[in-house]
Amino acid sequence: MQDRVAIVTGASSGIGRVVAIHLAKLGARVVLISNESIRILEALEEIRAISPESEAFEADVTSLPCLEESVKLTIEKFGRIDILVNNAGITRDALLIRMSHADWDRVLNVNLTSVFRLTRMVLKPMMKARYGRIVNISSVVGVTGNPGQANYVASKAGLIGFSKSVALETASRNITVNCVAPGFIATAMTDALNPKAKEAILSRIPMGTMGSPEDVAHAVAFLASEQAGYITGETLHVNGGLYMG
Ligand code: NAD
Questions:
Q1: Is the residue at 243 inside a domain?
Q2: Residue 190 located in a structural domain
Q3: Is 50 helix (H, G, I), strand (E, B) or coil?
């Protein structure tokens, strides 16, 4: 990935941060986007030690002007965008009957609408360059469903359909669009689960352990590589056998 320019959203913590580090180690110049002001600077410092030209923008992915500014500054600095990893995501869990309209809107805006917006923005330079790798972070529950997560599941299933459609629209330009669907990965998102819920999930995982952000990062890096150029519209499951596509 020498000299490739990669944007990673939600890169200040969890899976996104490890993905950004991994891409930097492979030679990419990484542009971090996140709404966490202090953590994003810490992440940038860590990544610049590996890939000195890397950059970070504090931006809420639900803000169109923030996204536009981040893409504009990326193009101004590097003149190209080769890789986009749409990783930023949140949960706001509740049974549907109690789910607020605000929680539905927030989850769909962060997890899905932002991906539409950012993908649309980066496609222009990618189409011009006739090269692009887009990796969207979905989830195993986007395929299986999950009670209490109708908003989150709708967003993650939406990403899979979205990726297939954009893959069809851009295949002739040497742009690939794929999903990685993590299972149960040890991050702040899963830390929030109570011990009983964690145990119940662990008992269903054939490999018997939670995955690590590194497990996901390897899958993302593969789909973001030149070598994965004949794979598009796919969903790569990283879940210890919890679900087999
Ligand atoms: P995390 O909470 O550790 O990190 C989420 C990241 O997204 C943070 O950097 C946060 O700053 C960023 N983010 C959230 N809202 C944002 C916004 N409005 N604007 C900009 N950035 C924002 O979560 P994680 O576990 O690392 O999750 C990363 C992705 O992986 C998410 O899309 C999540 O849905 C998906 N995923 C996680 C798991 C898991 O088990 N952890 C499983 C399946 C899918």
A1: no
A2: no
A3: coil
CATH of the domain at 231: 3.40.50.720
The percentage of the chain sitting over the pLDDT mark of 70, rounded to a whole number, equals: 100
- pLDDT number for residue 57: 98
Residue 113 CB less than 6 A away from ligand 1: no
Which residue puts its alpha carbon closest to atom 8 of ligand 1?
10
Where do we find the tokens 């990796």? 135
CA torsion angle 198 234 153 195 (round to 10): 10
* Domain assignment of residue 63, given as a range: 5-184+214-238
Smallest Cα–Cα separation from 163: which of 85, 228, 91, 238?
85
Distance (Å, rounded) from C-alpha 204 to C-alpha 24?
34
Q: What is the pTM of this model?
A: 0.98
Taking the centre of ligand 1 as the mean of its atom positions, its distance from the CA of residue 227, in whole angstroms, is: 27
Whether 152 is a known active-site residue: answer: yes
* 26 Cα: distance to centroid of ligand 1 (angstroms): 22
- For a mutational test of ligand 1's pocket, the pick from 12, 46, 60, 87, i.e. the residue with the most ligand atoms closer than 8 A to its C-beta, is 87
- 26 within domain boundaries: yes
Amino acid 197: pLDDT: 87
12 lines ligand 1 (CB under 6 A): yes
Dump pLDDT digits (tens) for 87-116.
999 999 999 999 999 999 999 999 999 999
Number of folded domains in the chain? Answer: 1
Q: How far is CA 135 from the centre of its chain?
A: 7
Ligand 1: centre distance to CA 171 (Å):
28
Does the beta carbon of 110 lie inside 6 Å of ligand 1? yes
- Reported residue count of the chain is 245
Q: Per the domain annotation, does 189 fall within a domain? A: no
